[in-house]
């Protein structure tokens, strides 16, 4: 039950990101290589994919950090 709750909460935060960030983070979660992500999203290079993934994870972390009560739920051990 806790995993479902975490997934729901995380998806809520993801929905607040722009479409490109959502795509990048979902592909990264699926273990798609940075080179493949760059190609799929028509980015100039693998380094650009890495840079965007970093920026997107930073945005996501900031959104989560702004809600301490939810941040605690997401950090709980299963």
Give an overview in words.
The chain is mainly alpha-helical. The protein has a single domain (2-75), classed as Arc Repressor Mutant, subunit A. Helices cover 76% and strands 0% of the residues. It is built from five helices and no strands. It has helices at 2-14, 19-29, 34-40, 46-65, 68-75. α2 packs across α4 (46-65) and α3 (34-40) packs across α4. The longest helix is centred in the last third of the chain and has 20 residues, at 46-65. The chain is elongated and about 40 Å long. The N and C termini lie close together (10 Å).
Number of strands: 0
The end-to-end distance, rounded to whole angstroms, is 10 Å
Strand content: under 5%
CATH architecture: Orthogonal Bundle
Q: Would you tell me the structural class of the helices and strands?
A: mainly alpha
CATH class: Mainly Alpha
Number of helices: 5
CA-based gyration radius: 14 Å
Based on Cα principal axes, name the global outline.
elongated
- Sheet with the most strands, sense and barrel status: none
pLDDT under 50 segments (min length 5)?
none
Helix content: over 70%
What's the number of structural domains?
A: 1
The CATH topology: Arc Repressor Mutant, subunit A
How much is the average pLDDT?
92
Order of helices and strands: HHHHH
